[in-house]
Write a structure and sequence with these properties.
About 45% of the residues lie in helices and about 15% in strands. It is α/β, with parallel strands linked by helices and about 290 residues long. The protein has one domain: TIM Barrel. The protein has an eight-stranded parallel barrel with strand order 1-2-3-4-5-6-7-8, surrounded by five helices. α5 crosses α6. The radius of gyration is 19 Å and the shape is globular.
């Protein structure tokens, strides 16, 4: 697995063709500039939770967006996210079969928004078992939320169903992650660890913070206090916090192995692409400078 991957949101369906093409051009340029070899594309859908701080706009399907990028950049692997529960099993199988025929190898299977909602499609476990039994060479990923109850057990169940790597929810602290790694070490041993991509995302405006909080991400009180000091310095402060987390991740690699922990750098707002490019370039070089992005 690549040590650093980039997660990019698909454009809204309402965008004009020229604007979509410009978005694709920007992403291809970022890939060329940073040397990123793996692009992670999430499936963004309307959610049941209320009080969304940023209005939802229907997105281009992940496979269509991926096809546009593939036309311009043939060397980058694309990791397709798919919410398994939204459509009946037959539709999931058709979607997966088609993507395999198109040459995709990496998938992240995502579950439902809430266990209280009844969905028509297969669970992540059911989808993973089917996919792995029919396509044993496919690389399957899942989502992990370090703050979720019994998360280590959830990870192990998904591994037993055929999931080989995980992408975490965005984090702004490492204590919950360390606890999950500790529990996994006790339960299955370091040698059986899955690959885990730890998700990081910069913020440049207060609205970014509100949206990420709405997504369910927890911010430590001290971090929120630091971010609220001066919005004009939010990008710089965000960089400082993320780089501290990167330092801690690098120390964890010394214990668990660099082949088991990576970084998924997320882009959660369309206007944050520039800061993402700068931070990704410096992250890969190991030279992240907080003053260069303010």
């Amino acid at each position: 697995m690549d040590p650093v991957i980039f997660e990019i949101i698909p454009p809204p369906k309402a965008w004009a063709k020229e604007r979509v093409e410009g978005w694709v051009e920007s992403i291809v340029k970022l890939l060329e500039t940073t040397g990123i070899n793996m692009l992670n594309i999430p499936e963004v859908v309307a959610q049941a939770r209320e009080n969304r701080p940023v209005p939802y706009r229907e997105k281009v399907p992940v496979e269509e967006f991926a096809a546009l990028i593939r036309k311009r950049c043939t060397t980058t692997e694309i990791m397709l996210n798919h919410i398994t529960v939204r459509r009946p099993f037959e539709k999931f199988r058709e979607w997966f079969d088609r993507r395999i025929s198109e040459g995709y190898k990496y998938f992240v299977l995502v579950g439902g928004e809430s266990s209280k909602i009844s969905y028509p499609g297969p669970s992540v476990l059911e989808a993973a078992e089917w996919a792995k039994s029919n396509y044993p060479d496919v690389k399957l990923g899942g989502i992990t939320i370090f703050t979720r109850r019994n998360e280590a057990e959830r990870i192990i169940r998904k591994m037993n169903a055929g999931i080989e790597f995980f992408v975490s929810q965005i984090i702004y602290e490492t204590e919950n992650m360390k606890q999950i790694l500790f529990e996994l070490e006790k339960k299955i041993g370091i040698n059986e660890f899955p690959f885990i991509y730890v998700s990081l995302a910069p913020v440049v405006r207060n609205r970014d913070i509100e949206f990420i909080k709405w997504l369910g991400v927890e911010f430590p009180t001290a971090v929120l206090s630091y971010f609220s000091m001066d919005e004009t310095k939010l990008a710089e402060h965000s960089c400082e916090i993320l780089w501290r987390i990167v330092d801690e991740i690098n120390r964890l690699k010394e214990r668990y192995g660099k082949e088991r922990i990576g970084i998924n750098f997320e882009h959660v707002m369309y206007n944050n692409l520039e800061i993402s490019e700068v931070m990704l370039s410096q992250l890969i070089k190991g030279e992240l400078s907080c003053t260069d992005i303010s």
